[in-house]
């Protein structure tokens, strides 16, 4: 099992959450909530209002999201879903746990003494330079007050 941090449309209550609970895609077990230890710019960009975490450490906000334990099949699905490595790149980031529900076997990865876990995160280094000038968000909600609702793939 690998640990994945999701901050956008794959979170509970967001437009693509159904993929996280579709066992035909693999297993994803909710572990808790957290935020990035380092600050990153989270922007909503492109004609489909997609949330992107730009891989510019030290700029922006501590981005909030959810932590999942996923099997290899789900990780492979997420790589394809996220257009990895072209649109997003999957990298390890340090995540500060803010709420933990994770249970499981003694061998399951746990947070360190400071409440930090390492998770795979889909962020991007391949973006148009003007995205750096977009508003930065600390948390993503497709129906947030930004007014930039995500456009579902089937509606594009």
UniProtKB/TrEMBL annotation:
<dbReference type="GO" id="GO:0042219">
    <property type="term" value="P:modified amino acid catabolic process"/>
</dbReference>
<dbReference type="InterPro" id="IPR036568">
    <property type="entry name" value="GGCT-like_sf"/>
</dbReference>
<keyword id="KW-0808">Transferase</keyword>
<comment type="similarity">
    <text>Belongs to the gamma-glutamylcyclotransferase family.</text>
</comment>
<feature type="active site" description="Proton acceptor">
    <location>
        <position position="82"/>
    </location>
</feature>
<dbReference type="GO" id="GO:0005829">
    <property type="term" value="C:cytosol"/>
</dbReference>
<dbReference type="Pfam" id="PF06094">
    <property type="entry name" value="GGACT"/>
</dbReference>
<protein>
    <recommendedName>
        <fullName>Gamma-glutamylaminecyclotransferase</fullName>
        <ecNumber>4.3.2.8</ecNumber>
    </recommendedName>
</protein>
<comment type="function">
    <text>Catalyzes the formation of 5-oxo-L-proline from L-gamma-glutamyl-L-epsilon-lysine.</text>
</comment>
<dbReference type="GO" id="GO:0061929">
    <property type="term" value="F:gamma-glutamylaminecyclotransferase activity"/>
</dbReference>
<dbReference type="InterPro" id="IPR039126">
    <property type="entry name" value="GGACT"/>
</dbReference>
<dbReference type="InterPro" id="IPR013024">
    <property type="entry name" value="GGCT-like"/>
</dbReference>
<dbReference type="GO" id="GO:0016740">
    <property type="term" value="F:transferase activity"/>
</dbReference>
<feature type="domain" description="Gamma-glutamylcyclotransferase AIG2-like">
    <location>
        <begin position="4"/>
        <end position="105"/>
    </location>
</feature>
<dbReference type="InterPro" id="IPR009288">
    <property type="entry name" value="AIG2-like_dom"/>
</dbReference>
<keyword id="KW-0456">Lyase</keyword>
């Amino acid at each position: 099992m690998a640990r994945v941090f999701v901050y956008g449309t794959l979170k509970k209550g967001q437009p693509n959450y159904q993929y996280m609970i579709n066992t035909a895609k693999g297993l994803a077990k909710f572990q808790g909530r957290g935020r990035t230890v380092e600050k990153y710019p989270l922007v909503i960009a492109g004609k489909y209002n997609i949330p992107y975490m730009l891989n510019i450490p030290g700029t922006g906000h501590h981005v909030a999201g959810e932590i999942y334990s996923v099997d290899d099949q789900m990780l492979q699905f997420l790589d394809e879903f996220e257009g990895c490595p072209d649109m997003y790149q999957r990298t390890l980031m340090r995540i500060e746990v803010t709420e933990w529900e994770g249970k499981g076997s003694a061998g399951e990865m746990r947070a360190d003494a400071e409440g930090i876990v390492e998770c795979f995160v889909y962020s991007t280094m391949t973006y148009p330079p003007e995205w750096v000038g977009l508003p930065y968000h600390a948390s993503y909600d497709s129906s947030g007050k930004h007014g930039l609702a995500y456009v579902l793939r089937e509606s594009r």
